[in-house]
Each structure stands twice: as C-alpha cells, then as structure tokens.
Write a sequence for this structure.
C-alpha cells in the first residue's frame, strides 16, 4: 500500500492542472497543507518553466503546416474517403449478388 505522500505526489501534476475530481482535489489540498515535502513538490510543479497549466486553444497548440503539406493531407483524406466508399460499394454488391443467387 502506498503512503499518502506517494499517492499525493502521483496526483500532483493532475491536481495542479485542475484535472482531478473535487473530492481528490480536497484530499490533495488537505495533505499539501500538512506536509512540507509535498508542498515543496507542488511548488516545483508550479515553478517548472517547461510545465504550462494553460495550453490555450487547440489552434495555438497545433503545429504550423506548409501549403504543400496541407495539399498532401487533403489528398490523403480524399483517398481515404474513396476507399471507404469503394468498400461499402463492394459490400453492397456482394450482399446483392448473394441475395440474387438464393
């Protein structure tokens, strides 16, 4: 069985990000108020420059794509749609042929 400190330290990244249920947040908050080591760990997460609690909109997080890459992506999506339609067509054709041969 893990100790409360181990459990809280596992939950700290999610807690600081606000991605835990209210009951879990209350548990972590109570423990951090009492435990200096876990409080220091929480402060480390908050100060870490590589950790960003607010990711902004998804558009900001999306990588930039050049015009050529965008064209290629559209072509791939078009081929995927065509393959899906062909698959449905072959299934329909097979089903129809099977029903006619009965």
């Amino acid at each position: 069985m893990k100790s409360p400190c181990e459990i809280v330290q596992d939950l700290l990244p999610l807690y600081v990000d606000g991605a835990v249920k209210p009951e879990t947040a209350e548990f972590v908050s109570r423990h951090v108020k009492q435990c200096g080591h876990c409080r220091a760990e929480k402060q480390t997460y908050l100060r870490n420059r590589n950790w960003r609690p607010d990711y902004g909109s998804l558009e900001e997080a999306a990588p930039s794509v050049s015009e050529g890459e965008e064209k290629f992506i559209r072509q791939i999506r078009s081929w995927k749609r065509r393959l899906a339609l062909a698959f449905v067509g072959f299934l329909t054709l097979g089903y129809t042929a099977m029903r006619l041969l009965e």
Observations:
- Residues 63 and 69 are 12 Å apart (CA to CA).
